[in-house]
Every structure is written in structure tokens, then in C-alpha cells.
Design the sequence.
């Protein structure tokens, strides 16, 4: 298996620019067979551009790529595929209506011999089963309809697909970001099995615990430069972060506590739908309340029901002890509730509209002048203020939202909700998929919100984040709140126990 | 993360994007119109005369009115197939009121606009209350219903002899300028203000850009969509009024397949079929390009069959430019 004592892949002096924008400035990367090689860097450091060059999606401007010691040209994705480079994207490219094995062989179906070129379903099924077994999965999976599987299993199907292509190098771009804890474990064991079979994995992740657990070596990128390649086992996590952000980050969680005010928000016997359990909780001004639980525990559904995004099955919501009727997001906003959804692209932003419009969207009324017309200049002025305050980069309000990185897009969504002057801010996984530096900025912003007297509810699957930032933690399991604890009594163990219904 | 960094790579790209290509996509329709006008000026000495230009302005007015109505559904990533039929039913009912029944022409005009708006509202309600999956379907249904009613109400007979007041908009001139063209310019200015400076107007762009994000930002999407289709229907009624003035009669097959010219004007004018992108002035230029093409080809004695072929090619070319633009903005 370890035929190549040297490296499987070597990239040397890779540079790439988009116009004036120099994204990669001479990057070296060396990957060995049978290792899990982590790429770490802030959003915009150049990780994905590097990967795109490796998969043949982009052409480099200068540099050399060696594969098993031979110099190669990667001009198209097919070139990379033929060498044995496969990529598992964060957004899966699958067709839910088709069966698992049909997805695996999509576009390169096996045919029977003969003039009719009929499909050879059996051969495809057998090969799919073989590869699923290599990943420790039941072969019966091959025959199931893909859309009925969870995200985690769908991802394993993509990995199985890579195996049927005889991949020697599999690139995984934040594969665990949308998985539940159980699915994550399953993925880890698959990745470890692949490593034992001598397959090299290039693993992009922001989760430091995960890197520590899985990685063999780590390459850190910053601003288009390779900073260093280090062995994972013998280096400190803090050192990685320092290399990544270019300075030492004093605190990962800049929690500030403020004196709590009155109870400003209360939910009484709210049912997400008719069949679900009623949920009750309250929050005080100046408080950050974490909502923890496993994926699928009903946290997002609860938030959507509070916000009127979906119709609910009855219950009462109080703001300042006044009952408010919420049947649509419009009502919720009028009552002073803001909801920063998890999926900023499909639920938060107008990607092809400029930043100022995105920021003003939820509060157009505020910008009406006496003549009932919208004051475009007032929008620009306000948008500029928020962009400056939240350090959105690049800070040009005329840019379309699409042109921003994930962390900056998230800030634009937050700016939109700050603009509504809400009292209650519900954040759903606010830091998922954004880098350490941007995370700290989001946390600081939450501090500012509660300092100015708002209430923050934060749904998060990241336990350190919950423990680091919240004043109180609610834990949900199967649609119910199973624990409500002050931060001083909360611990990872207690939260997990409540989350698993124990 | 993957998408995140692709975008990052675009992040600083805008500098480079603000090149010639950006201007081409922004002013593409206008440049097209200028080139077309220049060519026709050389090919025919009758083209660039005051008389002919005013003729074009008059000929373009019906399509310009239908087009500005059509812009709204297209901005919301929808479509309105029913405007040609709504035009017909509006003028037939106006004819019954003002000619057959001999009632006041003012009432006739109000009825004409109200019938148009009413059918538009029907489109909106079919879409938002019955939750039909796409406006293509709801307006396809309305298209047939409205045309059927236009035929039924007079047993397919045309109506002629409209009072002067009804004919005024389509027939009169202010000096050399057709009143219908002045109407078009006024309507376009109102629409420009509506779309850029009012809450509902901005919401139309928001819905076209991302319906779910718009809804979660507190926008009453259903209400805005109902308004959008109502306005589109209202514009069909107004276009009908202009048409009656021009031909001094109303006939049930009036406006047959006019919706396609209106869609063409919007698309040639640079609006995106995917919603959220498009301007009032682009649509005006789109309507002008179609009118200039028709007029020029007539002057050159090109048969109407061949004219259709040319206009088809122009639609495809215009949309291809849109596709190229989309590709540019989505890739790094």
C-alpha cells in the first residue's frame, strides 16, 4: 500500500490571481499516501482556490504539480479524475430521486454487452455494495433511494463513489459541517479506514477538535501564502490559530456578563405543530440564552415557530409581558423579534443585490421620507455605518452580496437585523462555516447586543461555544426542552445527557 | 466553505469586472438600439425622418405598455401569459358599455381599466391563494378564460364607433408627437419611481432575488405578488384603450399573442428571467428595438414572415448576452 515512500502529490509555487486580486502567492503543498492532511486557514486564505486548481476547475498562473513523482497538467476536472483525485463537496451533488447505486454510477453507467447498450444494474449494484462495505456500511444501502437517507449517509455515498473511481486522493471540504454528532463519528471512522487503505485525504475544516483527532499533518494558509506544514500530534492548537490569524487570539470566547434586566420574552406552551409537545421558556434582558441539542432535536423548528416562519400548533408568546400574535415573519418583526437563519444564502441574502439593499430589506419603512418615497441616500448612509461597525470586508455597499466571503455575508445578514432595532435576536448556528477570527467578531457583537439591553437566543451545536458565550442553557431533545440550567451548573456532560434524553 | 472561498476569489474581482464587459451588459440594449438605428439610416433614406420616428413611437406604444406591465412579474421570477387576452376582454366590455349600451365614455374607460386590473388580480389570487405552482400555469388558464369571455360577450362580433374621448389616447397628436407616446413616457416615469423609490417596488426586486429571504425579512410576499399581477392586468387594459383609439374598433381576437412581444421587450431590455434584475428603461429600449426592427424591415420591403425570423434571432441574441453576464457574475 505504501509504495510511494515519497509524496503522492506535490504542488510547488502555485500562484493564482483574479485580476488585481492575488489569491495564491506561491503555495507549496505536499501530500503523502495514507495520510490525512488538513488545510487550515481563515475564509479567503486561499484554501478553496488551491483545491479548485487541484481538481482542474481553475488553471494556475504559475507553479508545478507532481503526481507520484511525475509532472502533470491539470487542465480540466477530467484530468484530475483520471489521476485519481476525487472531491467531496460541502454541498452534495446528488439526485435524491435516484437510488444509491444509480447515483454512484451517474454519468458513467455500466452497460451490458450487445447492440442495445442496456444498463447493467446488477454490475453497478455489486460494485456499489463493495465500496460501501469498504466504508463499513451495510451493502443493502446500495438499493435505497438516496433522498431518504440523512445528510451523513448521503455523504458516505459520495465517498463510495470516489472509491469506485479508484481515487488515491480524496479532498473533503468541511465534510462534518452539516452532520449530527453520530454522523460525524461515522464519518471519522470511514476516513480512518480510508487512511489505512493508503488513500490520502486532504481535509478542510474549521473545527479544531476534529483536526486534532483526525489529522496527521496540517498546512496553514494565510492571505495566499503557505505559512507552515506541521505534524498535528506534536503542535499546540493555539499555535495553529496564531499562525492562521497572524496574531495570537487572546480569547476564543470574549464573554462579558451584564446585569440582567426584567423578563422581556416568554414562550408559553408553544407547539411547533399540532402533534408536538408544548414548549415553554423565558429570557431576561441582557441575557444570552443558548439552545443546545442534537441535530434534529427541533431547535430550528422552535425558532421558526416563534418567528412565524411556519404555522404553529398553538401557544402564546409574550414580549414585555404583553401577548403578541405572530402568524408571519412580518408580525414577528413588528413585535421586535429578529431571526438570523442558519442558511444565509437561501434564507438570508439577496445574492445579486447590493449590500445596502440587503441591509435595508427588513426595515424599508424606516427609510420612507415624508413623501412616502424611499430615501435611497438614507439607506446608503445607514448601510455604510453598519458595514463600518461590523467591519464587513470589502466595505463597498455597491457590491453584490454574492461577492463576499461567508463570514462577511453573515455580518451583512446580522446588519440587516440590527437595522430592525429588534429586542429579541434569535441566532441559528451563527458561526457555522466561518473562521475563528470572524467567530470572535460575531461573539463580540452578541455582547454589544445584550449590553444595549437586547435578548439573544443562540441555537448552536457547538458545545464550547454554548458554554463559552451563554448565561443560561436550554437543552432540547425530541422537540421538548429537557434541561434549563444556569451557565455555572452547565457542563458538556450534563448538556449531552439532557440532549440524548438521559 | 467551498462556496465561501470561491466567492472570496471574486471578492476583489469587481475591480476587474468594471471593464468594458460591464458597460456592455449595462448599456447593451441601448448600444443595440443605436447600432440598429445607424444601420437603418444608411439603408433607407425614409427611416430617419420626423414622420417615421413618430410613426415608430406610435407603433411601439401598445407593446411598451404591455412590456412595462410584464416587467413586474418577470422581476419576481414569474411571467404573465394572459395580457394579450386581458387586453381583448377589457376593450370588448368597454365597447359594450360605451357603444352598445351608449353609456358615458368616462365610465367605459374606467370599466376597461377595471376589467384589466380585475383579471390581473385573479392571476395574483390564483397564484397566492390557490398556491398554483407557477404563474405560467395560472396565467395560461386566465389567458384562455379571458379570450373566451372576449369572444362570448358579443358572439365574436367586433364593435366599432367609439366616442372621441375613448379614442383620444390612441389617435391624437400633440403637435407632431402622438399622445400615446407621451402616455408611455409618463407611465414609464411613474414605474421608474415605483420600482426604485417605493417600498412595494423594492420588495418586488427582493422577492425576485430570493423569495424565502424576502419572506423571512418580513415582506408580505403574497400581497406584493397580487399587486404585481394586478398592475400587469391594468397595463393590459390601458394598452387596449390605446389600441381602440388607433383602429377605432374592438375585436375579440385583438392582442393575440401580444404577450410574447411584451416578454420579448422585457428580455431584450436586459431583465433576467430568473428574477430580481431588470429596469424600466431597459424595457422601453427593448420595446423600441422591436418597433424599430419592424419599421425598418417594412421600409426595406422585407416580408412579414422574414420579420418574424429576424425578431426571433434578436430575442435569442439578447438572452444569450444575459446568459454570458450571469456566467460572468457567478464564476470567479
Sequence:
Amino acid at each position: 500500500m505504501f509504495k510511494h515512500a515519497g509524496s503522492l502529490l506535490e504542488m510547488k509555487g502555485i500562484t493564482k490571481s483574479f485580476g488585481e486580486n492575488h489569491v495564491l502567492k506561491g503555495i507549496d503543498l505536499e501530500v503523502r499516501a495514507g495520510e490525512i492532511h488538513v488545510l487550515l486557514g481563515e475564509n479567503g486564505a486561499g484554501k478553496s482556490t488551491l483545491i479548485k486548481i487541484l481538481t482542474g476547475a481553475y488553471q494556475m498562473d504559475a507553479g508545478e504539480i507532481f503526481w507520484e513523482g511525475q509532472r502533470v497538467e491539470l487542465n480540466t476536472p477530467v484530468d484530475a479524475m483520471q489521476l485519481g483525485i476525487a472531491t467531496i463537496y460541502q454541498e452534495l451533488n446528488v439526485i435524491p430521486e435516484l437510488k444509491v447505486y444509480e447515483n454512484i454510477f451517474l454519468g458513467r453507467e455500466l452497460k451490458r454487452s450487445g447492440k442495445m447498450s442496456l444498463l447493467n444494474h446488477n454490475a453497478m449494484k455489486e460494485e456499489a455494495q463493495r465500496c460501501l462495505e469498504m466504508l463499513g456500511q451495510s451493502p443493502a444501502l446500495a438499493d435505497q433511494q438516496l433522498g431518504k437517507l440523512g445528510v451523513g449517509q448521503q455523504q458516505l455515498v459520495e465517498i463510495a463513489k470516489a472509491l469506485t473511481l479508484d481515487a488515491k486522493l480524496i479532498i473533503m471540504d468541511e465534510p462534518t459541517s452539516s452532520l449530527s454528532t453520530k454522523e460525524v463519528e461515522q464519518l471519522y471512522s470511514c476516513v480512518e479506514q480510508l487512511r489505512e487503505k493508503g488513500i490520502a485525504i486532504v481535509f478542510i475544516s474549521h473545527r479544531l477538535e476534529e483536526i486534532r483527532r483526525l489529522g496527521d499533518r496540517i498546512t496553514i494558509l494565510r492571505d495566499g501564502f503557505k505559512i507552515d506544514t506541521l505534524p498535528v500530534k506534536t503542535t499546540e492548537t493555539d499555535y495553529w490559530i496564531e499562525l492562521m490569524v497572524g496574531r495570537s487570539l487572546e480569547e476564543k470566547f470574549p464573554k462579558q456578563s451584564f446585569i440582567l434586566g426584567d423578563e422581556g420574552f416568554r414562550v408559553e406552551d408553544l407547539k411547533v405543530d399540532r402533534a408536538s409537545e408544548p414548549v415553554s421558556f423565558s429570557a431576561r434582558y441582557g441575557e444570552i440564552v443558548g439552545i443546545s441539542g442534537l441535530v434534529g432535536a427541533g431547535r430550528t423548528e422552535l425558532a421558526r415557530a416563534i418567528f412565524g416562519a411556519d404555522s404553529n400548533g398553538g401557544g402564546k408568546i409574550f414580549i414585555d409581558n404583553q401577548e403578541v400574535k405572530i402568524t408571519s415573519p412580518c408580525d414577528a418583526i413588528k413585535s421586535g423579534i429578529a431571526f438570523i437563519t442558519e442558511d444565509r444564502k437561501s434564507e438570508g441574502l439577496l445574492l445579486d443585490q447590493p449590500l445596502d439593499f440587503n441591509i435595508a430589506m427588513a426595515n424599508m419603512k424606516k427609510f420612507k421620507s415624508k413623501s412616502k418615497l424611499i430615501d435611497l441616500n438614507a439607506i446608503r448612509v445607514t448601510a455604510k455605518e453598519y458595514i463600518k461597525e461590523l467591519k464587513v470586508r470589502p466595505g463597498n455597499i455597491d457590491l453584490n452580496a454574492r461577492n463576499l466571503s461567508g463570514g462577511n455575508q453573515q455580518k451583512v445578514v446580522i446588519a440587516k437585523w440590527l437595522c430592525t432595532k429588534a429586542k429579541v435576536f434569535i441566532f441559528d448556528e451563527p458561526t457555522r462555516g466561518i473562521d475563528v477570527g470572524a467567530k470572535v467578531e460575531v461573539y463580540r457583537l452578541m455582547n454589544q447586543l445584550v449590553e444595549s439591553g437586547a435578548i439573544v437566543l443562540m441555537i448552536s451545536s457547538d458545545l464550547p461555544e454554548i458554554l463559552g458565550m451563554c448565561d443560561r442553557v436550554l437543552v432540547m431533545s425530541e422537540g421538548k426542552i429537557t434541561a434549563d440550567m444556569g451557565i455555572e451548573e452547565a457542563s458538556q456532560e450534563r448538556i449531552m445527557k439532557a440532549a440524548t434524553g438521559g | 466553505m467551498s462556496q465561501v472561498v470561491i466567492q472570496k476569489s471574486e471578492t476583489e474581482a469587481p475591480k476587474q469586472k468594471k471593464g468594458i464587459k460591464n458597460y456592455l451588459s449595462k448599456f447593451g440594449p441601448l448600444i443595440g438600439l443605436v447600432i440598429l438605428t445607424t444601420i437603418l439610416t444608411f439603408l433607407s433614406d425614409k427611416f430617419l425622418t420626423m414622420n417615421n420616428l413618430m410613426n415608430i413611437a406610435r407603433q411601439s406604444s401598445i407593446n411598451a405598455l404591455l412590456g412595462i406591465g410584464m416587467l413586474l412579474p418577470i422581476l419576481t421570477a414569474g411571467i404573465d401569459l394572459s395580457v394579450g387576452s386581458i387586453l381583448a376582454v377589457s376593450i370588448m366590455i368597454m365597447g359594450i358599455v360605451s357603444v352598445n349600451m351608449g353609456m358615458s365614455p368616462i365610465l367605459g374607460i374606467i370599466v376597461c381599466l377595471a376589467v384589466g386590473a380585475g383579471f390581473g388580480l385573479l392571476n395574483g389570487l390564483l397564484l397566492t391563494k390557490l398556491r398554483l405552482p407557477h404563474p405560467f400555469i395560472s396565467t395560461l388558464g386566465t389567458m384562455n378564460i379571458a379570450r373566451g369571455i372576449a369572444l362570448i360577450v358579443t358572439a365574436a362580433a367586433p364593435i366599432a364607433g367609439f366616442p372621441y374621448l375613448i379614442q383620444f389616447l390612441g389617435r391624437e397628436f400633440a403637435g407632431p408627437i402622438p399622445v400615446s407616446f407621451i402616455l408611455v413616457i409618463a407611465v414609464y416615469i411613474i414605474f421608474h419611481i415605483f420600482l426604485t423609490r417605493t417600498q412595494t417596488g423594492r420588495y418586488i426586486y427582493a422577492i425576485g432575488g430570493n423569495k424565502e429571504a424576502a419572506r423571512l425579512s418580513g415582506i408580505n410576499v403574497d400581497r406584493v405578488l397580487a399587486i404585481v399581477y394586478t398592475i400587469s392586468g391594468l397595463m393590459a387594459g390601458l394598452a387596449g384603450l390605446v389600441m381602440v383609439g388607433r383602429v377605432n374598433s374592438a375585436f375579440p381576437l385583438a392582442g393575440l399573442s401580444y404577450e410574447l412581444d411584451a416578454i420579448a421587450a422585457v428580455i431584450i431590455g436586459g431583465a433576467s428571467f430568473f428574477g430580481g434584475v431588470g429596469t424600466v428603461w431597459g424595457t422601453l429600449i427593448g420595446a423600441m428595438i422591436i418597433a424599430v426592427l419592424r419599421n425598418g424591415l417594412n421600409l426595406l420591403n422585407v416580408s412579414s414572415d422574414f420579420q418574424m425570423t429576424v425578431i426571433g434571432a434578436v430575442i435569442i441574441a439578447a438572452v444569450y448576452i444575459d446568459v454570458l453576464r450571469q456566467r460572468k457574475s457567478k464564476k470567479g
About this structure: The CA atoms of residues 55 and 80 of chain A lie 5 Å apart. The two ends of chain A are 44 Å apart (CA to CA). DSSP finds 17 helices and 20 strands in chain A.
